[in-house]
Amino acid sequence: MSEDCIELRKPALIVGIGRIGKNIISKLNNNGVDLDFLLISNHKEELEVNNSLHIDCKSWINPSAYKIRSFLELHNEEVYSKLSKYQTVILVTSLSEKTGIAIAPIIANIAKCILNKRVISLVTMPFVHEKDRLFQSSVSLKRISLNSDINFIVDNDAYVEINPHLTVEDCSKITDEIMLNTIKLIPEITLNLGTNLISGTLNENSIDVGIKDLIAQLYSSLGTSSIKRSILYVNGARNEPIGRLNEMLNNFQNSMEGDTNDVSFVVTDSSRNNMHLIASIKGRTKFDSYDPLNLIPEENVLDWDMPESHPNIDLPLPLID
Description:
By secondary structure, the protein is of the alpha/beta class. The protein has a domain at about 10-150: Tubulin/FtsZ, GTPase domain (Rossmann fold). Helix content is about 35%, strand content about 20%. It contains nine helices and twelve strands. The protein has a ten-stranded mixed beta sheet with strand order 4-3-2-5-6-7-9-12-10-11. The longest helix is centred in the middle third of the chain and has 18 residues, at about 170-185. The termini are far apart. About 40% of the residues are buried.
């Protein structure tokens, strides 16, 4: 196996954080995926009776991400206990949600740095118009990436750039389907270490049109990074002539920049012609620009090992007359 690929071992645990984590785990259960799961959130409505960890923020109605982290720290021992039983931890969250921004970096750090587990993360990034989320999402993404063997990133904004008529609901459906199929693909494909960008289509377009959309989405998120490897995942192409599939794969390779020879083509029996593209990349993406401090070279940066939080500290200081 290549040096930049890894093999995973069971038992594996899917950790769903926030609303999207619950949605994905519910759909995986409905599809009969045989993996244990854990839901974590500071909102009770995003949890289930079993296999859940509620981060109680006490009297705070609208806690910041930093405040949520401080309450998560009270559950560290419980998190250690739940994660320690597994060889592989798969994190699923959205960095457009305050819950994901707050909790995911901490869980990744515990799983990788403290418990020495294999960590795969699947995260979605916010739309560009969500200005109040961009900076913190970039900071959290950097933390998650550092503590993940493999980090899959779904860029919500990439859909809108090529299909401005899409609604938020449309984008959510695309994102959910991409995450579901990525998790299902994990046992079947070569897993490349580092960052992987995922793009996808929802409409039942022709395969040719779908490929063009996927490439446009990919280069929308790519930034200055380069593509190392890519996997084109096509539903509903079993009845296509093999010669036509080979022709489309060649056209796809010719459309990509950088190392275009290492391209895999995965075809399924689904009746729908939706597609996903997973590209292993190296370098900076557009998400790095969300945090201006990323312009500073890493060797010139001092940072905390753990993300910052805002705990309540009561100091019994006497009154001094």
